[in-house]
TrEMBL record:
The keyword Transferase applies. Pfam families: Sulfotransfer_3. GO terms for molecular function: protein-tyrosine sulfotransferase activity. This is Protein-tyrosine sulfotransferase. Gene3D superfamilies: P-loop containing nucleotide triphosphate hydrolases (3.40.50.300). InterPro entries: P-loop_NTPase, TPST-like. Belongs to the protein sulfotransferase family. Keywords: Transferase. It comes from Echinococcus multilocularis (Fox tapeworm). One of its GO terms (cellular component) is Golgi apparatus. The keyword Chaperone does not apply. Catalyzes the O-sulfation of tyrosine residues within acidic motifs of polypeptides, using 3'-phosphoadenylyl sulfate (PAPS) as cosubstrate.
């Protein structure tokens, strides 16, 4: 099974008047479908409207079949744009990663679109079931691919200013990273990974709403994290265009990590990525994103081991049991001491930690 969850409140914006706005031309108030002379545009509008109506009437299920392999092998319908995608389980450092890239003068990421996961859901799971009907209407795999490429490119391009490299970060898009890499064969994917026990503690303490995830028991969150990477990691490992980034490494050794990441992305090095907190003027941080209050500070290490300390939402019994979780063992987290030592921080990180200890707002955030 392939886990898919949407954050609470995603569907609240799909009111009837907004769906109608998609269906009707703003000036003439005539159905846009009827006015379109271009068949591709017509089908594109129909699919987007169907997606909107689907989201409005039905919440996306938490459990869906494993992402289908792309059916089309024709590269003519694909995009050569070198987009950057960032994915991973919530509270795994995806926002930090996108902010570090966002301050780079050559890159623009922007906040979560919220609709990209639903477009990928439609592409990966709904279209295959109706391809017999589409084929009878002379709608080919190539045409469908070109429609979704256009939809995703338009979404990314129109949500912010242009830049040499554009990137997108949305929850759970890593579940369909194989599809993204298929539609955009020059794109690259950064898969963020963080200790599942730290993720569990963060999700519970910060009341992160993940639809259909029962947060009444911490082991449910840890199990969901474990299941998530069981399904996502193989797709990443099987592609040279996907790179696993450990949150702990990024926090402890940001210079070393960002140099490697930027070189892999083909983006020139710039010291600004190590001073993101001083260069946030052009970075959009939506109030509703739970990480917003944290990424305005310099990179810090205080949150790394909180899950193992008194007051953690992860009970001692689960900490002991956690060593049996497959992905904790795979990533090496299960063999760490408690409290864990994830690595040796760079000197710059140590200096910033001393500075942050005197910051009252920061101390309040972490109750130091």
């Amino acid at each position: 099974m392939c886990l898919y969850a949407s954050f609470e409140g995603h569907l609240e914006n799909f009111h009837e008047n907004k769906v109608d706005h998609i269906l009707f031309h703003e000036g003439a108030k005539m159905p846009l479908i009827c006015l379109s002379r271009n068949r591709l545009q017509c089908i594109f509008v129909i699919l987007l409207c169907s997606c909107g109506l689907f989201l409005y009437m039905n919440a996306v299920p938490c459990l869906i079949p494993t992402c289908n392999d792309p059916s089309n092998t024709d590269t003519a319908s694909q995009s050569n744009e070198p987009l950057i995608f960032i994915g991973g389980y919530p509270r795994s450092g995806t926002t930090l990663m996108r902010v570090l890239l966002d301050v780079h003068p050559s890159v623009r990421c922007g906040p979560e679109t919220h609709i990209l996961p639903h477009i990928l859901y439609l592409y990966s799971f709904k279209i295959d079931h109706i391809f017999g009907q589409l084929h009878s209407a002379n709608i080919t795999h190539e045409l469908v691919d070109s429609i979704f490429v256009h939809a995703i490119r338009t979404l990314i391009h129109k949500t912010g200013p242009d830049a040499e490299r554009l990137c997108a970060k949305d929850p759970f898009i890593d579940l369909c990273l194989k599809q993204l890499l298929h539609l955009f064969p020059k794109s690259l994917f950064l898969l963020m990974v963080r200790d599942g026990r730290a993720v569990t503690n963060s999700v519970l303490r910060r009341h992160i709403g993940i639809k259909y995830l029962d947060r009444s028991k911490p082991e449910n969150v840890l199990q969901a994290w474990d299941d998530h990477y069981k399904h996502v990691l193989p797709a990443c490992q099987n592609s040279s265009r996907c790179r696993v980034v450990r949150y702990e490494d990024l926090v402890l050794r940001p210079r070393e990590q960002m140099k490697g990441i930027l070189e892999w992305l083909g983006v020139p090095w710039d010291e600004v990525v190590l001073q993101h907190d001083q260069n946030m003027q052009e970075v959009k941080l939506p109030r509703k994103e739970r990480s917003t209050s944290q990424v305005v500070f310099p990179i810090y290490t205080e949150a790394l081991a909180q899950w193992s300390l008194p007051g953690s939402a992860v009970p001692p019994s689960l900490i002991q049991k956690s060593r049996s979780y497959e992905m904790l063992r795979y990533f090496g987290y299960a063999s760490l001491t408690i409290p864990p030592v994830y690595g040796i921080p760079e000197l710059e990180v140590q200096k910033r930690a001393q500075m942050l200890e005197k910051n009252e707002e920061f101390r309040k955030l972490f109750k130091l």
